[in-house]
Amino acid sequence: MALDELKITQAIIERFTEKLKSALNLDVAIVGAGPSGMVASYYLAKEGYNVAIFERKLSIGGGMWGGGMMFNQIVVQKAGKRILDDFGVKSLPYNEEYFTADAIEATTVICAKACQAGVKMFNCISMEDVVVRKGRVCGLVINWSPVEMTGLHVDPLVVHARYVIDATGHTTEVIKVIERKMGERLLTPSGKIEGEKSLWVEIAETTTIENTKEAYPGIFVTGMAANATFGSYRMGPIFGGMLLSGEKVAQLIHERLKGEKGKSVDE
Ligand code: 48F
User: Alpha-carbon distance 189 to 183, whole Å?
Assistant: First the structure.
């Protein structure tokens, strides 16, 4: 059969539209395809939830591709190795406490497993706003990243979600929108974003997991966004905290969703 460029075009348009339509009413919308967001998406999709990730960049992986200063290896402490094993990412013992993994393998395998578990990944799409009803976030306002980058005056589209995860890393973009637009208190000690502190690996790795929690009704923070929102340190190129934070946020949201079976997003 002759290859037909119009059929190819039609196939792409139809299949992408089907994928986007199936993400209009989500259980969980995740902003950011860095390590914490991708890990969270995998565990939630494995529970059978309708999960999508919206990633601003063309590439997934956030800060994991680059390892440390573009030396594309990551270090994971003993506690986080369990997650690498769960995904089937190879790791090598470095000493009694540390393991290393290839940053490219870790990023691509975690992404592939998430996609195969049913996560709908959307790259080149940015979250520009949220939907709030009765003091609770219940959706995202999204647009093509090139629209954002070029400043074109193009109205966005909307997806609904029972829960939103801010996995945007250092910039905590979803929480920033809430702080800026809602004039309401975040669930932080000051009611505002506490802000990220300078690097302290030992404390930062533990607090990333403690700070993985709800930061505003309907929005959970994970990964570096958790520390930036609740005011802890950055940790540099050690990734166990990111992986464990992704797992924890998935567990927390699973617990909530289990208790809310049958409710619609607008309730
Ligand atoms: O920064 P990022 O990798 O987040 P993370 O999961 O991991 C942090 C580590 O990479 C590293 C570290 C580890 O020790 O400190 O920095 O917390 O990934 C965040 C992703 O979110 C995307 C951004 O492009 C990146 O890929 N992102 C940020 N804002 C938006 C967004 C937005 N408004 N819409 C869509 N995607």
Answer: 16
